[in-house]
Amino acid sequence: MKNWKKLIAVAMAGAMSMSMLAACGSSSDSSAASSAPAAASSAASEAASSTSVEKKDGDVKIAYIVKAKTDEFWTTMETGAYAAAEEKGVTLEFQAPEKETDVEKQVQMVENAVVKGFDAIILSAADSTSLLPSIVKANNAGIPVVLVNDTIDMDELTNQGGKVETYVGISQYDAAAQAGTYAAENIKDGKICYLEGVPGVKALDDRLAGFQDQAPDFETVASQTAKCDRNEAYNVMQNVLNANPDVNVVWAVNAEMGQGAIQAIDQMKKTGSISVFDFDASSDDLAAIEEGTLTGTVAQYPNKQAEAAIQACLDVLDGKTLEEHTETPSLLVTADNLDEYKAEMGIE
């Protein structure tokens, strides 16, 4: 990134910091908005007379902000992110709220990253619209934003005058469709329970639709949110089984809910009569496939997403224009290809 961009970011971040301190992380920042243009103009004029110099290795600081660290997917992504950062010679801060539902905390983290003058922000948004004003603030400070794993409401972001550089991740819909197609081809007379994720998260909505659209002949006996939580999924699944003892398929849009469903099914002594599918290919998922309690799980390689997201930041800071979607791979893992997947991932 050129020095003049850094000067603008620092000047605008400084203007915003007084407002942020007064608001204790509130998303309201009107005083910063009014004072930032003058500061940015002054910084830009001063920088224009100097010679631009590319940042050296190790100078780039990236804030990597995700929804939580409550399940294995995010911790695997964190490990992959720090490994990629070390390899590429950048400084990384991996951050997350305690719960995926704590959207306000994530908003605060993004806005703090703007105030601190990070060179780039990688974001897995906990909500499709709540983070949009924070992204606009990053834009105004000259800090590029790269989405990872989760998309947002792009039309509304455009309406608010903001942008992101690229979305790094799988096609959530197409990845889920792999599981839906497999289920439709292998299960007759499907009576399905859908375990939905956190309301308002587009990626989770896409996972739900991707499966549903491939199995239109399945009878939906229940479709309820369990908020991506194992315990909630366990309780929801118990209630569903009590009310609908003929359920024979479950689609959970993340691994934690899939594991909660498996536990409830085992508790109700229904193991073997219900085909369970979920998303994320956690170590618990792989063990469950070996045990025969999980039929399939969609792997989306969080380590590869992290590496691609960091590279996207470096490309943008180097002046490159990126595609709207930087696609990463996904795979439906079943008993048929489990060994191959574990070998690819280096899992014993």
Keywords, separated by commas or semicolons:
Rossmann fold; single chain; alpha/beta; disordered N terminus; 6-stranded parallel sheet
Descriptive account of the structure:
The protein has two domains: 3-170 and 302-333, Response regulator (Rossmann fold, 3-Layer(aba) Sandwich); 172-299, 3-Layer(aba) Sandwich (Rossmann fold), CATH 3.40.50. It contains 13 helices and twelve strands. It has helices at residues 3-23, 30-48, 72-88, 103-115, 132-140, 154-159, 172-186, 202-212, 230-243, 255-267, 283-291, 302-317, 338-345; strands at residues 61-65, 91-95, 120-123, 145-148, 167-169, 191-196, 219-225, 249-252, 275-279, 296-299, 325-327, 331-333. It has a six-stranded parallel β-sheet, sandwiched between helices. Strand 6 (191-196), helix 8 and strand 7 form a beta-alpha-beta unit. Helix 1 (3-23) packs across helix 4 (103-115), helix 4 runs parallel beside helix 5 (132-140) and helix 9 (230-243) packs across helix 10 (255-267). The longest helix is centred in the first third of the chain and has 21 residues, at 3-23. The protein is globular, with a radius of gyration of 22 Å. The two termini are 41 Å apart.
Short structural description:
The chain has helices at residues 3-23, 30-48, 72-88, 103-115, 132-140, 154-159, 172-186, 202-212, 230-243, 255-267, 283-291, 302-317, 338-345; strands at 61-65, 91-95, 120-123, 145-148, 167-169, 191-196, 219-225, 249-252, 275-279, 296-299, 325-327, 331-333.
Topology overview:
Elements: H1 3-23, H2 30-48, E1 61-65, H3 72-88, E2 91-95, H4 103-115, E3 120-123, H5 132-140, E4 145-148, H6 154-159, E5 167-169, H7 172-186, E6 191-196, H8 202-212, E7 219-225, H9 230-243, E8 249-252, H10 255-267, E9 275-279, H11 283-291, E10 296-299, H12 302-317, E11 325-327, E12 331-333, H13 338-345
Parallel strand pairs: 1-2, 1-3, 3-4, 4-5, 5-11, 6-7, 6-8, 8-9, 9-10
Antiparallel strand pairs: 10-12
Helix pairs in contact: 1-2, 1-4, 3-12, 4-5, 7-8, 9-10
